[in-house]
Amino acid sequence: MAVVTLKEIVDRAFAERYGVPAINIVNDLTLENVLSGAVEARSPVIVQTSVKTVKSIGAGVLYAMWESMTRGIEVPVTLHLDHCPERAVISQCLALGWNSVLFDASELPVEENLRQTIEVVAEARGYGAHVEGEIEAITGVEDDHGSDIEGRRQSLEVSLDFIRRTGVDVFAPAIGNAHGVYKHEPILDFQRVSDIVEAQPVPIALHGGSGMTDEQFTDLIARGCAKVNISTALKILFMRSMLENLRVAEESDKWDPPTLFRSVAADVRGLTVELATKFGSAGRAW
User: Fold this and answer.
1) How many structural domains comprise the chain?
2) Active site residue: 28, 82, 161, 195, which one?
3) At what angle do helices 232-252 and 257-279 cross, to 10 degrees?
4) Residues 6 or more apart from 40 whose CB is under 8 A from it?
5) Which residue in 37, 65, 20, 26 sits closest to 273, CA to CA?
6) Which residues cross the membrane (predicted)?
7) For labeling, which of 96, 144, 241, 249 is most exposed (least CB within 10 Å)?
8) Which residues share a beta bridge with 81?
């Protein structure tokens, strides 16, 4: 396979009721090994980049890394810009070749969010790209974006009107999920996903996946959550793996960066395989 559209990945997952890991990478090492893990699991994967990562690495450099690492890849992969409220960054990434974007205008009034999302969808279509939309802010701060104060959820009617009028390809509802680390097992509104999908069969994006239970993932994926976002879990794994290996280096007084990189890479690959297996996408490559 090769690089495909977001819609091709999520539509298959939605129809067959499995979830595809949508993993936020932070650098070249994590990008390479999320892709490697997807190949090992024979799973499609959605590689996500935050606005913070795009700006810290540089959009052009990041896209060049993506092109190089996906050349000849054997599973379906796609590149997604996560939670972006900045229209200029969306335009930059679409022009470079990102396959999809999440235009996050959830802090705007619904009508203004809807108006601008329609514009973003039209812009994306010009590049053959797709759009994820949301009208409610997902609780929690991630990569300097968001709020720890839970916002008001919109009615089912407002949500369905937004999906239909904007033409978004994926919808991200607030269901009690949150970015970051959960202090307690989250209490989720499973029925809200079912109500949306029953009225408007659109693939659902599940945000705040790090820390949910296996049972919660299984239930939500069965209801239509075809895109399962994972960010915090990778960041914690990446930094803890670094820390553990640095402690070993300090204790042994052996300072060999390639050894560190190999160990961290193995951990990231392992996480990707684990997620693909858990969400049911392992073995689903075409």
Assistant:
1) 1
2) 82
3) 150
4) 269, 272, 273
5) 37
6) none
7) 144
8) 49, 101
Which token pair is 56? 């810290």
Distance between CA atoms of residues 52 and 257, nearest Å: 25
Please give the Cα distance from 139 to 137 (Å, whole number): 6
Strand segments, DSSP code E, in the chain are: 20-24, 45-49, 77-84, 100-103, 130-133, 140-142, 145-147, 170-171, 204-206, 225-230
* Amino acid 210: pLDDT: 76
What does the alpha-carbon distance between residue 272 and residue 45 come to, in Å, rounded to a whole number?
9
For the full predicted model, state whether its pTM sits above 0.90: yes
Residue 286 lies in a domain: no
Asked whether the beta carbons of 41 and 73 are under 8 A apart, the reply is no
- CATH code (residue 264): 3.20.20.70
pLDDT of residue 182: 52
pLDDT for 107: 87
Question: How many other β-carbons are positioned within 10 Å of the β-carbon of residue 183?
Answer: 8
In a domain, 36, yes or no: yes
Catalytic-residue membership of 82: yes
> Is 285 part of a structural domain of the chain?
no
Query: Encoding tokens for residue 261?
Result: 């990189």
Residue whose C-alpha is closest to residue 109's, from 48, 158, 177: 158
Mean pLDDT by 10 residues, the chain (286 residues): 94 98 98 98 98 98 98 97 97 98 93 97 98 79 49 85 97 80 72 97 91 92 98 96 96 96 98 98 98
Percent helix, strand, coil in the chain (nearest 5)? 50, 15, 35
